[in-house]
Give the backbone structure.
Amino acid sequence: MSAPILEVDDLHVRFPISGRGILGAGKRTLYAVTGVSFSLAKGECLSIVGESGCGKSTTALSIMGLQEPTEGTIRFRGKPITGPGAPSRMARAKAAQMVFQDPYASLNPRQTVNASLAQPLKLHGIAGSEATDRIAAMLRSVGLTAEQGRRYPHEFSGGQRQRIGIARALILEPEIVVLDEPVSALDVSIRAQIINLLQDLQEQFGLSYVMISHDLSVVEHMSDRVLVMFFSQIVEQGGWGEIFENPQHPYTRRLIDAIPDPDAALGRARKATEKVHPVPPPGWRFSSDGSVAPDVFSPPEASELVDIGPDHKVRLLRA
Amino acid sequence: MRLGFNLVFGGFLTVVVILAGILAPWLAPFDPVMDANLMNAELPPDGEFWFGTDSQGRDVYSRILYGAQISLTVGIVSQVINSLIGVTLGMTAGYWGGWWDDLVNGMTNVMLAIPSLIFALAVMAVLGPGLVSLLIALGLTNWSWTCRIARSSTLSLKSQGYVLAAQSLGYSDLRIMFTQILPNMMGPILVMATLGMGSAVLSEAALSFLGLGIQPPFPSWGSMLTDAREMIQLAPWVAIFPGLAIFLSVLGFNLLGDGLRDSLDPHMRTRKA
Amino acid sequence: MTVPLLEVKDLHVGLPIGGGQTYPILKGVSFQIMPGEAFGLVGESGSGKSVTSLAAMGLLKKPLRTTAGQILFHGRDLLKLSRREMRKLRGDRIAMIFQEPMTALNPLATVGRQIAEMFYLHQGKSWAEGEKLAVEALANVRVPNPDRRAKNYPHQMSGGLRQRVMIAMALACDPDLLIADEPTTALDVTVQAEVLRLIKELCTERGTAVLFISHDLGVIASTCQRVGVMYSGVLVEENWTEALFTDPRHEYTRGLLGALPRLGSRSTQGRHRLVDIDSIIPDRSILTQTRFISPRGEGASA
């Protein structure tokens, strides 16, 4: 495999929460992301899954440069894009772009589709007929017509808005696209169309995806590799087959079992917990299964991500 | 835009005030200052002097038409200053946060704690009476609500996907504020400014009534009320008509503001032809 | 054959659009729910599934109105009841839980008090008795430390706990029918799984029938014995859950199931494209012209 396009190295994000007392008494620290590391290969789809508050969105915002990491570095093609010496916003723009969850809040209601696609192009020195051609081609790629480009966002359905959001993310031809719950706000039939579109575009433009999702059915369908996050940390990571066929961490198993899948519900698919009971490597034990809500204001228990197979790691505690 | 009663009636009153101000030189039968004639003093309304005459024998109707110029200038200019200050402070505070936000918040709270008329009085005391100082005084007084609205709109717009997208597309902070945030909060700001015009007209009247605004003999609705004070029982028309003018124009601005609030909804906008 | 608990017969709901015209929202929906049965209505947004449940509760918001049909509950037509009679029925014989428990709970009262109110209003218990029963009700929905939790306000609880409180309130008077409208859509997956299991267990235990409304085929499959698929105001297919998912008859149901990424399907089928309903059915207007309602056979209800 070629050199990774994106490397996240020991990322930490902590938020100071001001206390209620006078003079900042009771000031606390919220641990949002603790020691997250991963790398993304060209053309790969890596998914970060977990429940609300697990740190997956903060990780995504850090990759986008929208959230300054407290510690750690993020490198794009080997060059750091955080901390001192980080490239400007303009320079970063061609590295990574983002598709947002809520198609209703992600488009400026006062700009036509063409305007919201033309502005970033103009900013990066592309105007005139070249810009017009690129916008028309991009609209076609996401399944919209050039005529629809003259309309305002409120004239579109949720699925069409998501297509516009994807067009905006791709217009500068970034190499990485961060997908933040790209289909969770959409109806089943629209969801399928957008998932198909994302896969087509990935192939067509050779895109690398980082997908944030809580929907494991979509994750299994789209991903090459999966990171499972629980309470600011990665608890398990590996290829999609490892995670879905051979889940080791109790929390991963809990998450997979919780999916309301028709086949699982009707007993046609075996539940993860009914498969062979995983045994931790000697000298280690599994951390909690996530059934108890963690205290987000204290640092997580000392534990390690341990290799248990090729491209498969699980967070374990020393026994 | 939906046409509600507020919008139509408020708009109508506002247009009447604007036309009265613009067309005063042609509509007024007499000069508001020079045509003083003590022989005609304190005449009740009749065919010649529609709204009667004041103690100097000047035509009240003509003075009210010219007074509309003053009221409009005060209303519009002071609100433009207010909105510029309020939007600039509020939007930057909301967008950048940190110490700048704390500072702006502090200033806003101080301004809100001081009764605006008292603050305007203090400014007028420093600058001296006159139209220009009146405009500056009122322009500096009422930006705190606009600032608060601009700040809270910015805070909520800042987390919208399209603002985050603009950041990742490489837009600078100023560009984001002007192209992504400002257009989406123009509605409430415009409403505040329109409502503020009403209160500016009232403040002008009050300051002029206290002798700090427009100086006699030039007509402003407030100074006309001052003049009318001593003879309100003998010649009530001298007080009633300027009072009515203030009432109707303030009502007009407020209804227009309410009407705009109801109808300024980006979702009502359709494609540009 | 048993008598149905709830029978919706040819229900039409319309939106008046002026000039004596109405725009149809529900175009003749019929289904039955037997006592103790869990029935699911599944569909995409705009299919009319929520309107159906609101009509059954007599909670249709103006200007929507029922233009034809019957909703028989214990054989009585709910559409003919006075508002007072309907109010007496709601919360007592028919209860409802909603998607967002935060908005459905009163933020200014403790949850114990709010559950106690159900006993006070519908069973004529005193407040003191009601609060004692409220603690019991919280224990029944497996809230840990129920006596302490009863003194909490809604904002002091997590989304999952609040939904449990809603369930405790809904089941307080042992209703015959529970209407659950997207009860777990706002919750995290693991919490959703717990809440669904809780609803299923409690209703089976008490013999409460459930009308389950959801956009999520998986949620419906894991909770209901019988399923109706709605599209554009029409119940296009109804069958026993197992049969509907293994052998969908209606084109729309087939499209919907094909559009769903299924867990484990990638291991067996490899990476595949999901079914795009619009490409297999370009003219969606034909979808409402056919309906497949499978009869309730005696043996099939196992």
Q: What stands out?
A: Chain B has one domain: 5-27+50-266. Residues 267-273 of chain B have pLDDT under 50 and may be disordered. Chains B and C do not touch (no CB pair under 8 Å). DSSP finds ten helices and no strands in chain B.
